[in-house]
């Protein structure tokens, strides 16, 4: 049995695409006869506070589903203050160095990036000719930070670019969540062995529910992080509600803004349902007609994992984020695409959607496409062969 260590900043019981992705990777490798360990911070995302069951601990180790999990201390925050966010990343990096110093590290290590600094700490301190380092890149930093407006091209940005290049150079194998990510990495490290590893979901999809013919309005739903990048508050303000209603699930930095907007506009058909468990969410989503996936700005390399999750549920997708995600939705006929950032185009597109299109047969085709094309098991087989 081969030992594998996964280093990540997100892991269950935290919610979200990042924690789900790493959990499925760890679980998939364990089922393929790997002895899997995971290093992750004490759970704190997305609230920025250490979860109640882990408060007051410096380290918490447990075995869950035959996976050994080491949860390390960090300074938890969701502050927009760049200094505090840096302190948070540095605190976890210091905890990692402490762990590396006093524990035996397997010869195969998978490192999640971003955060860039945490990945750098792992790549720098674990470099060895006897060790295989696999870098799992889910977003391109610092490019994504620049496109989101969180970073500016200055001395600090140049340092982050150097860290990014070091991480690629130090890796033996690179896993990329999108073709754009792999294309970018190949321009910097063309000699590196790489593999496309998308964030495909792993769940048994519930039976699709047929739409009631008595419903005249299209029930649009968003489920996920209510962060700056998603721009759900702006979406609420820009949508035309002539023949739609908007339902929102999730939590994040914009939650208070969204709730305040709903209170100030009680006549608008916007409904906030809060955060629910993943299994409960899957059942709830079946009652809606279309799932919207927005990004406030097009982010190079980013492919929202919601595309694959909604498709497996048989839920038609309205994609509003640009980039590679557009191609996936169009090529696989998963729904509709509006021009990124163009709310006028979005509203015109919604106005053209007829409820007669939202048939049970159409939803079933989407679900079958997802099962056949977005196959996590095939991906895991490829990764296990590389390891």
Automatic annotation (TrEMBL):
SUPFAM superfamilies: UDP-Glycosyltransferase/glycogen phosphorylase. The chain crosses the membrane at residues 83-102. GO terms for molecular function: hexosyltransferase activity. Residues 213-371 form the Glycosyl transferase family domain. Keywords: Membrane, Transferase, Transmembrane, Transmembrane helix. The keyword Glycoprotein does not apply. Residues 17-189 form the Glycosyltransferase subfamily 4-like N-terminal domain. It holds the Pfam family Glycos_transf_1. PANTHER family: SULFOQUINOVOSYL TRANSFERASE SQD2 (PTHR45947). This is Glycosyltransferase WbuB. It comes from Oceanihabitans sediminis. The lineage of its organism: Bacteria, Pseudomonadati, Bacteroidota, Flavobacteriia, Flavobacteriales.
């Amino acid at each position: 049995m081969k030992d594998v260590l996964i280093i990540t900043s997100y892991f269950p019981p935290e919610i979200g695409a990042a924690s789900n992705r790493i959990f499925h990777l760890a679980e998939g490798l364990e089922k393929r006869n790997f002895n899997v360990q995971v290093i992750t911070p004490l759970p704190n995302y997305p609230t920025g506070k250490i979860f109640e069951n882990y408060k007051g601990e410096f380290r918490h180790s447990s075995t869950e589903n035959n996976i050994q999990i080491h949860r390390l201390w960090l300074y938890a925050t969701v502050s927009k203050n760049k200094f505090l966010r840096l302190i948070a990343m540095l605190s976890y990096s210091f905890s990692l160095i402490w762990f590396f110093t006093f524990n035996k590290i397997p010869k195969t290590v998978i490192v999640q990036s971003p955060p860039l600094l945490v990945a750098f700490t792992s790549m720098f301190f674990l470099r060895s000719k006897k060790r295989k380092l696999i870098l799992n890149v889910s977003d391109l930093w610092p490019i994504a930070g620049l496109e989101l407006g969180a970073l500016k091209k200055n001395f600090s940005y140049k340092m982050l670019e150097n860290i990014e290049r070091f991480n690629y150079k130090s890796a033996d194998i690179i896993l990329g969540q999108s073709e754009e990510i792999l294309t970018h990495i190949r321009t910097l490290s063309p000699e590196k062995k790489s593999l496309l590893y998308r964030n495909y979901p792993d769940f048994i999809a519930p039976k699709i529910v047929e739409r009631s013919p008595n419903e005249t309005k299209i029930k649009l739903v968003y489920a996920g992080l209510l962060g700056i990048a998603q721009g759900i508050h702006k979406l609420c303000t820009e949508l035309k509600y002539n023949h739609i209603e908007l339902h929102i699930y999730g939590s994040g930095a914009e939650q208070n803004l969204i709730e305040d907007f709903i209170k100030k506009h009680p006549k608008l058909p916007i409904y906030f349902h809060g955060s629910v468990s993943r299994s409960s969410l899957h059942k709830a989503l079946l009652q809606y007609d279309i799932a919207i996936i927005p990004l406030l700005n097009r982010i190079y390399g980013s492919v929202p994992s919601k595309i694959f999750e909604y498709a497996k549920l048989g839920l038609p997708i309205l994609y509003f984020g640009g980039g590679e995600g557009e191609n996936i939705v169009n090529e696989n006929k998963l729904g509709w695409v509006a021009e990124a950032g163009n709310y006028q185009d979005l509203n015109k597109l919604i106005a053209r959607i007829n409820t007669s299109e939202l048939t049970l047969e159409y939803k079933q085709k989407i679900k079958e496409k997802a099962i056949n094309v977005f196959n996590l098991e095939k991906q895991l087989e490829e990764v296990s062969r590389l390891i």
